[in-house]
UniProtKB/TrEMBL annotation:
It comes from Arthrobacter mobilis. Coiled coil: none annotated. Signal peptide: none annotated. One of its GO terms (molecular function) is hydrolase activity. Keywords: Hydrolase. This is Alpha/beta hydrolase. Residues 27-161 form the Serine aminopeptidase S33 domain. SUPFAM superfamilies: alpha/beta-Hydrolases (SSF53474).
Length: 259
């Protein structure tokens, strides 16, 4: 049965990021990093279940909490989309330095947008997967649109999201508004798998179409029909992990690909 390893590694500005490595119980076929969605954390349904599913198919995965989330140090409200992208680089460096160089990047929701931005600068990454990702990072602004005027006028405002009390700062809004992934997706220069539910009411499936259109081949699209945005149904999240593992066979340098 796959196991886990709890790890900590250096983030940005002196922060320490807490992560979980889901370990295959057989020979490791590849290593991956999973980037969670906006304020979700490494133990969210999508992050934990997809990572565990991949481990069952021989792909070890590091999932981690962004600064200020879960067991990671720092203040979440100091973060921006740019820092989310940079933390992926921190995670990749940690895996490289511990002898587990990654070849696969996976991101859910805003984490999917972040891996699209991060991947072109990570030479070791051979393939990229997005799950329910927005084409434009500023899409997440709708989650706190009701306090946006206060944020822009006063510099910050508090919201409750998913049971968490969060402070939204002006710098986050500005960073999200300025992020443009079109050129980054076009320069990805590696295989891309876009996964999205056609009934996703949080990030519409049209986002997947725009990502797919902006990307160059090789690229693939898989419809996660029956799934919600958070992949709360275990059957659906396990299915997503199996699809990713099977898709990765043809693109990662695997000594023992699954049949």
């Amino acid at each position: 049965m796959p196991g886990i390893e709890q790890v900590k590694f250096a983030g940005l500005g002196g922060t320490v990021l807490a992560g979980t490595v889901d370990l295959p119980d057989t020979q490791v076929r590849a290593w991956a990093v999973f980037c969670h969605g906006f304020a979700l954390g490494k133990n969210s349904a999508a992050a934990a279940r997809i990572s565990k599913a991949l481990a069952r198919h021989g792909i070890g995965v590091l999932r981690y909490d962004a600064a200020g989330i879960g067991a990671s140090t720092g203040d979440w409200h100091d973060g921006t989309f740019t820092t989310k992208v940079a933390e992926i680089g921190c995670a990749a460096r940690f895996m490289r330095e511990t002898g587990r160089t990654i070849s696969l990047l996976i991101g859910h929701s805003l984490g999917g947008a972040a891996v699209l931005d991060a991947a072109p600068d990570l030479d070791e990454v051979d393939a990229v997967v997005t799950v329910g990702a927005p084409f434009e990072p500023r899409h997440v602004v709708h989650l706190f649109d009701h306090v946006l005027d206060d944020v822009l006028a006063h510099g910050a405002a508090d919201i409750t999201l998913g049971g968490k009390r969060l402070r939204i700062r002006r710098q986050l809004v500005h960073d999200l508004e300025q992020a443009d992934l079109t050129a980054r997706i076009a320069s990805l220069d590696r295989p891309l798998l876009v996964m999205h539910s056609p009934t996703d009411s949080t990030v519409g499936v049209e986002n997947a179409g725009r990502i797919f259109q902006a990307a160059r081949h090789p690229k693939s699209f898989i419809s996660l029909e029956g799934s919600d945005h958070l992949l709360t149904d275990r059957v659906q999240s396990d299915r997503a992990g199996l699809i990713i593992a099977a898709w990765a066979n043809q693109y990662l340098e695997l000594e023992d690909p699954i049949g």
